[in-house]
UniProtKB/TrEMBL annotation:
Gene3D superfamilies in alphabetical order: Nucleic acid-binding proteins, P-loop containing nucleotide triphosphate hydrolases
Record's signal peptide: none
Chain ranges of the Helicase C-terminal domain: 485-660
Protein name, UniProt field: Probable DNA 3'-5' helicase RecG
Biological classification of the source: Bacteria, Bacillati, Actinomycetota, Actinomycetes, Micromonosporales
CDD domains: RecG_wedge_OBF
One GO process term, biological-process aspect: DNA repair
Gene responsible for this protein: recG
Residue intervals of the Helicase ATP-binding domain: 290-463
Matches recorded under PROSITE patterns: HELICASE_ATP_BIND_1, HELICASE_CTER
GO MF annotation list: ATP binding; DNA binding; DNA helicase activity; hydrolase activity
Family annotation (SUPFAM superfamilies): Nucleic acid-binding proteins, P-loop containing nucleoside triphosphate hydrolases
Species of origin: Actinoplanes nipponensis
Nucleotide-binding listed as a keyword: yes
């Protein structure tokens, strides 16, 4: 029984406010345990239904809500097409009746039994002179409801703005609404955590009013003000967390690694066969200045595929080696780590072979540490890491293992950071005596508000120019309605090979034995699909068919490391014409002679992933072409995604499109942490101005009060909105 004599706060267990059965249902099905959990379980949308209407006064085209009783039910087959139609006749006691129809929903007959009273909402239509509601929303009144309870349900259902909650089958939205009403009766909102100056300057309503209006809005205007205030709280909490972290990082002690005039970096620059792009030079200066400070650098380097990020990272690593330290480059896969090791070795030349016959005695050594190294090779590599003779260490997560000890780790470069968890980055940083400088690289362009919200504690550098000599990439969709296009695609591969070039064929899966339950369900409005195409299925078909006679290779993540490396070496050396692969080639693989890529089942990949993949071609002087093969029909969301990818090579525009089509919780790491997204209302795209404003206020407040000691309520609010796990995720350095 509800106790209305006590005050309910956000910390009050629901079992003390609601009945034990209700509290248990909310805990079991929705993971809601306290009054605060329920109060912050915001509606996901609001329905607008007409005022409660008399059956005799209905007009065609009107949006209505009716209180009526089920008089009869009939299920019959449809005449013109397959399926059934359920017809419910309802009346309100005035003698007037109305028909409600449901198509292929005969199961509703079980609950819409004759005699049940309920609320029915929908648009009045006319069918053969009879008024009806087609597929109306409805809520049946409880048979044991008192007159007051029925009146309350009617008011909740038929009001101007009806909240629709994230719900469960056992706890539907109107049940949640009823429980929220019960809690709000005794709810005492917390002291407003936002400083009064911020509320006044940003025209924000109080937290108590906002929490009531979000659940039971008095009007559209009041709902807007409530949403705006609660969005502000979310944005402000995240920005305060990031600004505080950035301030702490800037104040932390570190070791300066200043540039040396006549060192390795100067020799490397002098030997470069081309000039740095304007962007590479500018970003290089930003990083050099960071490294020269006695505080750890925390910088994000983002740039389009092929914009020359690795060269920028190599120059930063050489500056640290010049200053007596070591640099570690952490790559997400063995293929990428091996590729980085090979390309950096080629870039350094004799400078990276100190101690060898053809090495520069003033140079350094480069070593590779991966999980597949043999015992002897591993011992040799770890010895170089431990005594400092290896100035640059490239590796996978194997660098994180116990037994990999650095002599003086001064810089950590993390490539494609989104593939590493917080714990992995921290483990590598912990191998330094003092916090090392950190450079995070990503080839996935990041929309501005995402960068501000997810990477807000890092300085950001962007490379937007492609190096001179890089060729444009043309992309085209190969659709199901044009089967001749696919034949032409394979002909194009043969033509490129004949001209001396190479090709990739990318498939979403390795083989038919992979568990199909791992497949994501199709998007809304898209039909059920066959299993995605697999490398091991496609390769023999191509070998015997359209690519017969060409030299084909296979590459995927489950191959032994030495076999993967051998395949990549053969492809890079031109001994293979076509590489049939999974997304293992998505990042870092650099074979300038590759000019064409065919992506099978392209609709199975994300927008940013497609953009990354096609960046593997056109890396030399010959133009690249990417063909997106799909069975997605015109007009479907999947096809629209592919059309968008084909229409532009602007990675930032595509990144925004990708964000629009994903749950924003994923952007903030909900999928990594396994928790619900704490962005309940805030949209990183739609609320960009609000986020920018919150950032400005956060910078000002932290400058005045770095620990928020003068604002204890705000500190507690931030802790509640950005829990420790999320705070760790936000710490990108």
């Amino acid at each position: 029984m509800t106790d209305t004599t006590t005050v309910t706060t956000t910390d009050t267990p629901l079992a003390k406010v609601l009945s034990p059965a209700k509290a248990k249902a909310l805990a079991t099905h929705l993971d809601l345990h306290t009054a605060g959990d329920l109060i912050y379980h915001f509606p996901r949308r609001y329905d607008e239904r007409g005022e409660h209407t008399d059956l005799r006064k209905l007009e065609v085209g009107e949006q209505v809500t009716l209180l009526a009783q089920v008089k009869s039910t009939t299920v019959r087959p449809m005449r013109q097409r397959r399926g059934t139609m359920l017809e419910i006749t309802v009346g309100d006691g005035s003698g007037a009746t109305l028909t409600c129809t449901f198509f292929n929903q005969a199961w509703r007959e079980r609950e819409l039994r004759t005699g049940r009273w309920g609320l029915f909402a929908g648009k009045v239509t006319d069918f053969r002179g009879k008024r009806q509601l087609n597929g109306p929303a409805y809520q049946l009144l409880r048979a044991d409801a008192t007159q007051d309870e029925a009146a309350e349900e009617i008011e909740e259902f038929a009001g101007a703005l009806i909240p629709v909650y994230p719900a469960a089958a056992a706890v539907p939205t109107w049940t949640i609404a009823r429980y929220v009403r019960e809690v709000l009766e005794t709810f005492q909102p917390p002291d407003d955590p936002l400083p009064g100056t911020v509320r006044a300057s940003r025209n924000l309503i109080g937290i108590g009013k906002a929490l009531r209006e979000i659940h039971r809005p008095s009007s559209e205007k009041d709902l807007h003000l409530a949403k705006y205030r609660l969005k502000w709280d979310e944005a402000f909490a995240v920005q305060l967390t990031l600004v505080q972290r950035k301030a702490r990082a800037a104040a932390a002690p570190g070791r300066a690694r200043p540039r040396r005039e006549a060192g390795l970096l100067a020799a490397f620059d002098a030997a470069l066969p081309y000039e740095l792009t304007e962007g590479q030079a500018r970003v290089g200066e930003e990083i050099a200045a960071d490294l020269a400070r006695a505080h750890p650098m925390h910088r994000l380097l983002q740039g389009e595929v092929g914009s020359g990020k690795t060269l920028v990272a190599v120059r930063a690593m050489l500056q640290v080696v010049d200053a007596g330290g070591q640099a570690a480059l952490l790559a997400p896969t063995e293929v990428l780590a091996t590729q980085h090791h090979r390309s950096i070795s080629a870039q350094l030349g004799a400078l990276g072979r100190a101690g060898e016959l053809d090495g520069d005695p003033n140079g350094t050594q480069l070593t590779l540490v991966t999980g597949s190294l043999g015992a002897a090779a591993r011992r040799a590599a770890l010895a170089k890491v431990g005594d400092g003779s290896a100035g640059i260490v490239v590796g996978t997560h194997a660098l994180l293992y116990e037994g990999v000890d650095f002599h003086d780790l001064g810089l950590v470069v993390v490539d494609e950071q989104h593939r590493f968890g917080v714990e992995q980055r921290d483990a590598l940083r912990a191998k330094a005596a003092q916090p090392p400088h950190v450079l995070v690289m990503t080839a996935t362009p990041i929309p501005r508000t995402v960068a501000m919200t997810v990477y807000g504690d890092l300085e950001t550098s962007t490379l937007s120019q492609l190096p001179r000599g890089r060729s444009p990439i043309a992309s085209h969709v190969v659709p199901p309605e044009r089967p001749a296009f696919l034949e032409r695609a394979w002909q194009r591969v043969r033509e490129e090979v004949k001209a001396g070039h190479q090709a990739y064929v990318v498939c979403p899966r390795i083989g038919a034995t992979e568990a199909e339950e791992d497949e994501e369900p199709p998007a809304d409005n898209e039909p059920a699909r066959r299993p995605p195409l697999a490398v091991m299925e496609v390769a023999p078909i191509l070998e015997e068919g359209p690519l017969h006679g060409l030299r084909l290779g296979i590459l995927h993540g489950k191959l032994p490391a030495d076999e993967k490396d051998a395949v990549m070496r053969r492809f890079a050396a031109g001994d293979l014409d076509v590489l049939i692969a999974t997304t293992v080639i998505e990042v870092g693989v650099d074979v300038p002679n590759s000019t064409v890529m065919i992506i099978m089942d392209a609709d199975r990949f994300g927008v940013s992933q497609l953009h990354q993949l096609r960046g593997r071609v056109g890396r030399g002087s010959a133009p690249g072409i990417c063909l997106l093969v799909t069975e997605a029909a015109e007009g479907t969301p999947a096809r629209e995604r592919l059309d968008a990818v084909a229409s532009t090579t602007d990675g930032f525009r595509l990144a925004e499109l990708d964000l629009e089509q994903r749950r924003e919780g994923d952007v903030l790491g909900a999928s990594q942490s396994g928790k619900h997204s704490h962005l309940r209302l805030l949209s990183l795209l739609r609320d960009s101005k609000l986020i920018t404003d919150a950032r400005a206020e956060a910078l000002e407040l932290v400058a005045e009060d770095p620990t928020l000691a003068k604002h204890p309520a705000l500190l507690a609010s931030v802790a509640a909105l950005v829990d420790e796990e999320r705070a760790e995720y936000l710490e990108k350095g």
